[in-house]
Amino acid sequence: MERTLSIIKPDAVRKNVIGEIISRFEKNGLKIAAMKKIWMTKQEAKGFYIVHKDKPFYDSLTDFMSEGPIVVMVLEGENAIAKNREIMGATNPANAAPGTIRKDFAENIERNAVHGSDSPETAAFEIKYFFSELEIF
Ligand code: UDP
Questions:
Q1: Residues that bind ATP, according to the entry (predicted)?
Q2: Is the residue at 136 inside a domain?
Q3: Which of 30, 60, 91, 113 would bridge with 25, disulfide CB 3.0–4.6 Å?
């Protein structure tokens, strides 16, 4: 069993597709081990994406991630990290495979509907960023 952090980003929350996205995780055998809706400050978004602090898109990305509410979840299952990445699709929706969340809901490479941890190390950091052990079941 593995855990990963998933975020439904502000663009997808505004589109009212929270349920459709969560249903794709469940249909693919991932369990929602924790979930909440929050609205990050710019500072909180900067802390979450600290690995990208030197990238040209850091400022714009953290503006976007703090522009409205998001849904943060811990997904649990076998190979949860890779499985979630597969269900999400490529970062740029133009390259995302048919049937993936980003193909169906993303607007562009920045406003791309969902986030998913990309390794066990980032999953551990990202889950801790939003949840205490007492909130994960
Ligand atoms: N991003 C962006 N421009 C880029 C690359 C990424 O705005 O050229 C944003 C996008 O929202 C992406 C996030 O930064 O989801 C994190 O980038 P990463 O390369 O880690 O992609 P992901 O792991 O989310 O697919």
A1: 9, 57, 85, 91, 102, 112
A2: no
A3: 30
Evaluate whether residue 112 is within a structural domain.
yes
Report pTM. Answer: 0.98
Number of domains in the chain: 1
- Complex ipTM more than 0.90, yes or no: yes
Residue type at position 110: E
Q: Is 6 in the pocket of ligand 1 (CB under 6 A)?
A: no
State the CATH number of the domain containing residue 80.
3.30.70.141
Token match 């551990």: residue?
A: 124
Does the beta carbon of 57 lie inside 6 Å of ligand 1?
Answer: yes
Residue 4: Cβ-neighbour burial (10 angstroms; 0-12, 13-18, 19+): buried
Domain assignment present for residue 52? The answer is yes
Asked if the structure places residue 137 within a domain, the reply is no
pLDDT digits (tens, 9 = 90+) for 46-93: 999 999 999 999 999 999 999 999 999 999 999 999 999 999 999 999
* Vertex 131 angle, CA 28 and 46, to 5°: 100
Residue 19's domain comprises 2-130
Of the candidates 70, 66, 114, the one whose C-alpha atom is nearest the C-alpha of residue 93 is: 114
Report yes or no: 2 and 124 within 8 Å, Cβ to Cβ. no
